[in-house]
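User: Run a structure prediction on this.
Assistant: Running it now.
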Amino acid sequence: MAPSVNGTVGPGPDGTGNTAAGEPRTEALPADPGAERAPVRVAGTSAGATASSTAGAAASSTAGTASRGPRRVRLTLARLDPFSVMKLSFLIAIGIGLATVVAVALLWNIVDAIGLWDQMDQLGRDLNGGRPLPFMEYFSFSKFLSYGTVVAVANIVLLTALGTLLAFLYNIVASLLGGLKLTFTDE
């Protein structure tokens, strides 16, 4: 189905929403319905001649659009391809995962630079009779980087699955309610 001038969807000339060539139809919403198109000069004609051929009519429509303002097209997002959404969410999740690992490394180095690990170890020794606390070995840089990597991998799996699931859910809801209606302009 293709959007019509008033934003409703109707079948094309063949009843399928496509043109005779098989391409989807889109119709522009007029920016100013009362505006007239100015005559356009065609290259190779005299200075006073105006366009009257089909090429001239096409040129006048593009020039008329420029003089009337931006052209607006109203389309409906009726379906998301789940495989495309899965690929995109996977790439976004990889970026978030890398940012997570880098953030863990930076935060550990900041905490180490201000001496918080040493202060925690000293406090634990004071409370434990001079012996180091057994859990302080879990606060080493390599362990924290491992924790961050595990969290990043889990986020990659979850975000990819969630994005794909949301694409399927959107397709179900869009088939029931009609999808998102969007208006595009060419400025």
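The radius of gyration is 31 Å.
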